[in-house]
Amino acid sequence: MKKILISISAALLLSSCAHEFNQVFKSSDTAYRYEFAKECFAKGKYTQAITLLNDLIAIQKGTDNGEESLYMLAMAQYGNMDYESAAQAFKKYHSTYPKGIYAERASYYVGQSLYMSTPEPRLDQSQTIKAIAAFQEYLDLYPDAQMKTQAQDRLFELQDKLVKKELYNAQLYYDLGGYFGNINSNSESNYESCIVTAQNALKDYPYTSLREVFALLIMKGKYKLAENSVAARQLERFQDAEDECYGFINEYPDSKHVKTAEKYIAVCKKYTANAKEE
């Protein structure tokens, strides 16, 4: 009986709240609707706040309440986890009120909204690139920004996503190897793509913590490229692979992959010695 009474009370309360909201939404009293929207926002009732604020923005455009309504709309969308809409609303606020009292925060939240909607590294990183650009713009516009540290931390996180994306791409090319048909053509193109992708990643992100992983892929890629190459190019490629192995050992003398490099060097030396004898 107690549970039934609680359920009935909850239903009546929800019905009462819905009735009140409908009355406010239909009201022609702009000030009343605005205050109710603020109350909904403060209580975390973001969907109701968004519904009211979308109408109020046009009505109150050019007023102090219009400025606050637009910023509140953006924050409500962010709170509602509609990050794409939030990013657009924050952009609109910043372009409409570049000197507004919420301008700096709006600029930050453009990046933050985009950051929240970025996918995991294996997927397309277009959104990540947009988020990086937004945070960079925020730091350029506000060099002494209140949330400078947070923005910089986000930039590092987002750049790590791009690095991991490149790592997944390079690893995929390596794993494909000679999977498709003619090993002399397809394996070479896949291993070459692995090498180029990893090399470009090291150029673009020289301070990444994944340097050794990329270097390992380059070394293994060059060895596999030589191993599976057409005879006419094997000597050149085994020599290149040997040089890469020595370079890896010099840069990472304590790496657990040094033995792999040494094994590759032995094979490369054996091939080049035989080639010279011939």
- N- to C-terminal distance: 97 Å
Low-confidence runs: 4-16
List the secondary-structure elements in sequence, H or E: HHHHHHHHHHHH
The count of DSSP E runs of length 2 or more, i.e. the number of strands, is 0
Estimate the helix proportion, in percent: over 70%
Radius of gyration: 29 Å
| pLDDT averaged over residues | 89
Counted by DSSP, the helix tally is 12
Largest sheet composition:
none
Strand content: under 5%
Structural class: mainly alpha
User: Which shape, going by the Cα principal axes?
Assistant: rod-shaped
Please outline what is shown here.
Helices cover 79% and strands 0% of the residues.
Descriptive overview:
The chain has 278 residues and is an all-alpha fold. The protein has twelve helices and no strands. Helix 4 packs antiparallel against helix 5 (83-96). The longest helix has 29 residues, at 148-176. Residues 4-16 have low confidence and may be disordered.
Fill in the keyword field for this structure.
about 280 residues, mainly alpha
Q: Helix and strand layout, with pairings?
A:
Layout: H1 2-26, H2 30-42, H3 46-59, H4 64-79, H5 83-96, H6 103-116, H7 126-141, H8 148-176, H9 183-204, H10 211-227, H11 231-251, H12 258-277
Helix pairs in contact: 2-3, 3-4, 4-5, 5-6, 6-7, 7-8, 8-9, 8-10, 9-10, 10-11, 11-12
